[in-house]
Amino acid sequence: MRVEYSLLLFAAATLPAQSPTPVEWPVYGGGPESMRYSSLQQIKRQNVKRLKVAWTFDASDGIQSSELEVNPIVVKGVLYATTVSLNTVALNAATGELLWRFDPYNGRKVRGGGGRTRGVVHWGDGQDQRIFVAVQQFLYALDATTGRPIAAFGDGGRVDMRDGLRPGEKLMVSLGTPGIVYKNLLIIGSRTAESLPTPPGDGKFRAFDKSTGALLWETTLPAAGNATPATYEVDGRQFVVIATSSGKSRAPAPATYVAFALDEP
Question: Is 204's pLDDT higher than 60?
Answer without folding.
Answer: yes
